Amino acid sequence: MARFRGEGIHPDIRHTGLEYALYNLVYQDGIPYETSPGYNFSWIRNITEIAETLKWAGRNMYQHPKMKTLYEGVLDVVQCGQHTPSLGDSGSVWGGLVGQDAYTFQAAYRAYGDERYRRFLQKFGATGESGFNTFETLFYPMIEPTTESLQPQEPRLLDGYGMAILNNASDTVSMSLYYGYKGGHGHFDRLHFDLFANGWPMTPDLGYPDFMNAYVPGIYSWSKNTISHNTVTVDAGRQVNNEKGAINYFSNSDRVRWVEVEAPETYPQCATYRRLMMMVDVDEEHSYFVDFFTVEGGDQHDYSLHGPPGECESIGGEWTKPGSGTLAGATVEVGALYDDPARSVEGFDGTYYGYMGSGFQHFIHPQRLLSGEWIAEYHHAKDRDARLRIRILPTQDQEIILADAQVSPVKHKDLVKYVIARRKGEDLNSLFVSVLEPYSEEPFIQSVTSERIGKSIVLNIDLVDGITDTIIYEGSETGSRLVRTDRTNGSRMEWVPEMAKRDKSDEVVRIGKPHITSASGARVTTDAQFEFGPTYAGCFLTDKDFTEYYKIETAGRDFIDLIDPLPEGHPFRVGEDAWVVGRRQHRQ
Fold first, then answer.
1. CA geometry: angle 320, 325, 328, nearest 5 deg
2. Which residue pairs, CB below 8 angstroms and at least 24 apart, start in 48-53?
3. Can you give the pLDDT at residue 507?
4. FRET partner for 507 with CA separation of 20 to 30 A, picked from 301, 335, 409, 555?
5. d(CA 261, CA 276)
6. Same domain for 237 and 379?
7. Cβ distance 352 to 220 under 8 Å?
8. Distance from C-alpha of 22 to C-alpha of 26, rounded to nearest angstrom
9. How far is Cα 106 from Cα 126, in angstroms, rounded to an integer?
10. Cα–Cα distance between 444 and 288 in angstroms, integer?
11. pLDDT by residue (tens digit) across 350-362?
């Protein structure tokens, strides 16, 4: 039990005591430090096995305040009740649920009696007699079946992990935006989003790479690279810094939802790297999304979006013929490391982890828009009635490119059509705007027009039912608003996001547990390793009894630097525990 209590702390996180691991290796939302949901669930399964074993020693881990959050986190990231985002090294372009493990959720249900867990078990056939599917289950009463299904979730913010989720009231359309710290099995994909509708991921992350092997070039030049995700690549290179983004605001109004995230440290040359996404309901089952992505700094910005595998038609516009070679150049072969001389030499036998290039060499059949209005229309490969329209709105000096890419270079050769908006110039200031319309039988957006009025962008979105939505985007300081006009009778409604909602919903929460090895000046050291140390800036260090609080300037894996030096008589003692505390958003 010494390891559980934290005695004999080990500098290798793989040997961290369970008590410390639950705080220092698990986010406040109950999600472990791997970015990948698939790998994260292996942690939850293993911790559940430990908890079940410890019961025989008279230790009830399920009473620990962090344990229940582990199971909540698995369910909180689920989209439309059907899909876990294929974030990082997880899942596939086709979607699917992570966490359908009878052992884990049967144990959770026995511990907490939470009907949400029983409904989840029912979803994959692990209640009733079919729930007796392992040797261990024979020692417990049957979990009775239920006629209830999982309830639709509310829009939610998992601010520890770094995921914002917008969805409609019926939970048939949703979007997840990732802005978190890149942990284990993560990709260089800050501010990437996935959109879900019609039962499918409609702008899917590409899922698990070909291999988990640093000696395979396509993993780092494509699968993990920034350009393969729905975000912005700056200066033809992958994202550099690993700094978590920050929520500016998150709001859920009737028929309209907003989230805006700021992540300027992602690229060192950028003063601004910010995304605002709006979700607007058309009716109870259909919604569209408007994306505003602002980038300041750098000399080339590539705003990349893609739909699902399947047919993609370009409606309207005059286009060049598909080009030869790749987007990297007519003479650059697919997958060639044209922008990494050290790794492209014949006989190179090192790893490709350090590849910092563009990934443009994975795009084939590049076409460029010459003139005219256009729409990219996707039909899902596995369900032709699952459809998506993407419009990227025109702006000054913007080039529009269509190109194909394989889901992965070796194993998954399904082609995905990418739409890329590119701007070039010295010390650029770009605002990319797009409208995404998932639908099934008939599109519900008739037309989209935009204009600049001073510093504002005004979008007029005419719906086929006689409604016009006017969206006014005025930048981060004042955000955006929506005015809905019924053209048949002139009636109007207006929505403005609740800018202060984030502060209202915060609560103080324990997010780290250091075991003190020294405390002097402005530095405190610990031998309970901090995997999340870089995310602690701006949080507070407090003693084990919560008597005094000191603001953190920065932290690493084994230290905390405070903004101000510790005074004489401070409460931190060598060999004792302390707490890092922050603020948590409510899930709903």
1. 90
2. 48/103, 48/104, 48/107, 48/108, 49/103, 50/18, 51/107, 51/111, 52/107, 52/136
3. 65
4. 555
5. 7
6. yes
7. yes
8. 5
9. 8
10. 9
11. 999 999 999 999 9
Average pLDDT over the chain, rounded to whole?
Answer: 92
On whether the CB atoms of residues 280 and 255 are closer than 8 A, the answer is yes
| Matching residue, tokens 């601010």 | 159
Q: Give the CA angle between residues 378, 379, 382 to the nearest 5°.
A: 140
With b for 16 or more beta-carbon neighbours within 10 A and e for fewer, the 85-104 pattern comes to bbbbbbbbbbbebbbbbbbb
Q: Of 470, 503, 536, at which residue does a domain stop?
A: 503
Instruction: Please name the residue that has the structure tokens 């460029």.
Output: 368
CATH number at residue 558: 2.40.10
Count Cβ atoms below 10 Å from residue 218 Cβ, excluding itself: 23
Select from 551, 536, 542 the least CA-distant residue to 578: 542
Q: Above 90 in pLDDT, residue 502?
A: no
Distance, in Å, from the CA atom of 99 to the CA atom of 70, rounded to the nearest integer, reads: 11
Which pLDDT tens digit goes with each residue over 174-227? 999 999 999 889 999 999 999 999 999 999 999 999 998 999 999 999 999 999
User: What's the per-residue H, E or C state across 286-301?
Assistant: CEEEEEEEEEECCCEE
Instruction: Give the Å distances, CA to CA, from 368 to 169, 375, 419.
Output: 39, 13, 10
Domain with 369 in it: what CATH number? 2.70.98.70
Is 150 inside any structural domain? no
Domain count, the chain: 3
pLDDT value for 11: 62
Are 79 and 11 in the same domain? yes
Q: What is the pLDDT of residue 134?
A: 82
Tell the residue number behind the tokens 């372009």, with chain if given: 93
Q: Are residues 496 and 511 in the same domain?
A: no
Mean pLDDT, rounded, for 24-32: 94
Residue 459: its H or E element: strand 456-463
Asked whether residue 389 is domain-assigned, the answer is yes
**Within a domain: residue 145?**
no
Q: Which amino acid belongs to residue 273?
A: Y
Same structural domain, 499 and 512: no
Q: Give the separation between CA 538 and CA 536, rounded to whole angstroms.
A: 6
Task: Indicate if 445 and 519 belong to the same structural domain.
Answer: no
Average pLDDT over residues 371-380: 97
Task: Select from 474, 503, 532 the last residue of a domain.
Answer: 503
**Residue 134 falls inside a structural domain:** yes
Instruction: Give the domain range for residue 432.
Output: 156-503
Model-level pTM greater than 0.90?
Answer: yes
Q: Does residue 117 share a domain with residue 170? A: no
Alpha helices in 197-260 (DSSP H): 217-218
Q: Do 161 and 132 share a structural domain? A: no
Query: Are residues 168 and 302 both part of a single domain?
Result: yes
Report whether pLDDT(111) > 80: yes
Determine contact, residues 338/350, Cβ cutoff 8 Å: no
Q: What percent of the chain clears pLDDT 70, i.e. is strictly above it?
A: 94
